[in-house]
Amino acid sequence: MNSARWKPSVTVAAVIEQAGRYLLVEEQTAAGLRLNTPAGHLEAGESPQQGAVREALEETGRVFTPTSLLGIYMAAAADAGGVPTTWLRFAFCGSASEPDPTRALDTGIVRTLWLTPAEIEASRDRHRSPLVWRCVQDHLHGQRFALDVVHMDDSASAGGNFV
Which CATH class is domain 9-147? Predict the structure, then answer.
């Protein structure tokens, strides 16, 4: 029996639409310049919603206010080292403030862009993952879930053994 336990990498994303355009980031990756929604890894001790707010601020300089859960997504792909990885993404939609001009963007982020759905679809070969377009499509189709469907039990951080 294999004692290794499979665990997906958990990420969070902010899907921000304003006046028919979506806020994306252009970022430097091992595969070159790619487009993504503001997104990144969930950090220890934070809820998925808190993680999405943090990532949006780090990558866009804007305060993200989630209004709903857009969806929970899984995708498998090789990571930068070629290792197969399964990604579990919590995507939230909401609004964002104006950017803070004094805030530096996260390392690797080249710039932010407001793109129409047609521009996003036309640039699919530059997306960081297929989840970029999927999330925009779900948003366009009106998919929304209440924020309270994602629960965080604080006792889990105390080392509980839950199944």
Answer: alpha beta
